[in-house]
Amino acid sequence: MAALWLVAQPAAAGDAKIDWPTHGWATSMPEEQGMDSHRLAALVSLGKQEGMDSLLVVRHGKLVVDAYFAPFRAGVRHRMFTATKTVTGSLIGVALQDGILDSIDHPVLDFFAGRQVENLDDDKKAMTVRHLLDMTSGLQWVQEKGRPESDREMLASPDWLQFLLNRPMAFPPGQHFSFNDGGPHLLSAILTKLTDQSAADYARTHLFAPLGITDFYWTADPQGLSIGGFGLFMQPHDMAKLGYLYLHQGRWEDQQILPVDWIKRIQEATIVADQGQKSGWRFGNLFLCIPEKNVFVGWGHHGQYIIVMPAQDMVAVITGTQSYSPQKWIDYLSGAVVSDTALAPNAAAYGELTNQIKIAASETPSPVNPAPPIAQAISGKVYHFADNPMHLSELSLDLAGATPSYSYVINGGTETTRPERVTGPIGLDGTYRLGTETKGGIRAAKGNWLDNKTFLFQFQTLGHDDERKAMVTFEDKSIEIRIEGGLGGPMPIIRGEADN
Questions:
Q1: What pLDDT was estimated at residue 499?
Q2: 368 inside domain
Q3: Could you give the angle at the alpha carbon of 282 between the alpha carbons of 213 and 154, nearest 5°?
């Protein structure tokens, strides 16, 4: 394994041939970087079928594929889900390199000496930063196979850190792999203890700034700790920069950002990551790895991947809204590599690739039905709602005008939260219309009449993987809304009444 690691690395950081994308990625035709445009075109086409939002491929420091699948578009942050863990783990590496963390073998409880910890025993005292990085902490956690019970308990608790510290031990540390969101959040809390700032703020100056990353958003828990296991939003181009940092052994330009052996520890990982479909994977420093292929992946729910392939001098980023096997895409990407040196130009194949990227950026319309007479009658009416789980207090639709639109008010759910009015256009031709960008992101909406009184309203925030469907039924002055989809699952029926 060590021999493979030594021979399969890209050029050293001091090599003048390295293109550092600090101020943006240089682009290239795939053939110039030894890749087959025809095979890459097939990947873009498959990405559209599999519900991707973006597909980026970088080889020899050049961006050879930069595809976005409508309605998602370039320049928009995307939810990374559990791929956030790779950034949290990276920050632990940065803290080691900066000298503010002495060792990954430091006991976890030492950082929280002022806290009263329940279920305290010798196993919990023996838990270290290394165990958190390897998902072998031993903390009791139920998250496997789509049952995020412990996640729900953590989210409902008033103090997430205390919830985690109080968890009983299910196994001695180091003995059992358990992929979970709790351990990375403990790492985020440790970073805050070490730096006296949130993980997001530490990342801004010590990790993102050297890479030229400025546009990110990282959600926090009730105490203001950056959520270590999920909650980070980044642009795909910037996700690729993180992969490029790892491709070059933690060095960026003339700065060693991660310890020199940090990436080697991932590539030589021995922890078996038995997650069903990921058979054969290993785990270390919050990365998945296939040692025999010298490939490692920052993995996130619903197809968020940062794929690092040192043997091919390649990085790929995938974002999406559906689950698909990263190993399949690793094989596809490897298959598109033909040579380590430039190939002869292939205008026909490159034309096919650019056409597939163009098709990806154009949304395929969903079926639409003619508007019934009620569309005119309900347009402009204002409907009011009693308290409900969606916190929806008011809704108005214009489904008959030249520019169909929606307007609704969210009351915030508490007496101290100010109501928020949200407005935007609706596509009635089977494609999404995008609203203006707000703090919450870019909202998109479309709709279609299902019958003479039921309107299907589909809405999402670009890059949030939160598409929902609202079945809106109108009856005289009343309105009934059934909402499906989104990360929170189905919601109870909401009923309202129109103004007189």
A1: 86
A2: no
A3: 65
Is the same domain home to 230 and 298?
A: yes
Query: CA 67, CA 295: separation in Å to the nearest integer?
Result: 22
Q: Could you say which DSSP state residue 213 is in?
A: -
pLDDT digits (tens, 9 = 90+) for 301-354: 989 999 999 999 999 999 999 888 888 999 999 999 999 999 999 999 999 999
Note whether 153 and 282 are same-domain residues.
yes
Residue 90 CA to residue 84 CA, distance in Å, equals 10
Gap between the Cα atoms of 497 and 500, Å rounded: 9
pLDDT of 416 reads: 61
For residue 442, the cross-strand partners are 437
Domain count, the chain: 2
The continuous run of DSSP H or E covering 447 comes out as strand 441-449
Which residues constitute the domain of residue 230? 2-359
Percentage of the chain beyond pLDDT 70 is 93
Q: How far apart are CA 331 and CA 295, in angstroms?
A: 11
Q: Which of 234, 269, 262 is nearest to 81 (CA)?
A: 234
| The amino acid at 356 | Q
| 376 sits in which H/E element | helix 374-378
Tokens representing 81 are 């889900």
Single residue among 303, 335, 359 that ends a domain in this structure: 359
Query: For residue 299, what are the β-bridge partners?
Result: 305
Q: Give the end of a domain, one of 297, 326, 359.
A: 359
> Is residue 365 domain-resident?
no
Cβ neighbours for 161, distance < 8 A, ≥ 6 positions apart: 112, 115, 185, 186, 189, 221, 223, 225
CATH, residue 112: 3.40.710.10
Q: Are 306 and 329 in contact (CB under 8 A)?
A: no
pLDDT digits (tens, 9 = 90+) for 4-28: 333 344 544 344 479 999 999 999 9
Q: What is the CATH number of the domain that holds 399?
A: 2.40.128.20
Structural domain contains residue 89: yes
Neighbouring residues of 110: CB distance < 8 A, sequence distance ≥ 6: none
Q: Do 380 and 303 belong together in one domain?
A: no
232 and 352 in a common domain: yes
* Bridge partners, 78 (sequence order): 234
